[in-house]
Design goal:
Layout lengths: L12 H19 L1 H11 L5 H7 L3 H12 L3 H43 L2
Length: 118
Amino acid sequence: MSTQQQEAPGPTVEHKGVEAVVDEVKERFTREWDSLKARARTVFEKLSEEDVESVKGRFDELRARVVKAYGYAEERAHEEVARLLHRSDAKPSEEKRSRKKQRGLKRRANAASRSASR
C-alpha cells in the first residue's frame, strides 16, 4: 500500500473521550429538559414557544432550531445549547451566595441594634 492509499486511522482514545462527553451532555440535557425549557425560551428569544415545546428534550433538535433562527454555525449552536446546562449548574451557587449575603446583612443589623441599645 502506498502512502497515498493508506486508510485514515480510526478514532483515537482522545476522540472517543470527546464523543463520550458529548453523549453525556445530550443525555443530561434530555433528563433535565423540563427544567431547561423556560431558560431556553429566555436565552433563545427568537424561538417561538412552539419551537421550544417541539424540541421535547432532543439536544440536536434545539441546536438545529438555533442554527436556523440565529444563523449560527453548527459548532457555535452546539456550544450555546450546551451552556443551558452550565447556567443551570450556576443557579444554585448564585442562590447560595445570595442567602449567605442576606444572613451576613441580618447579623450586621442585629449587631448594630445590640450595640445601639447598650
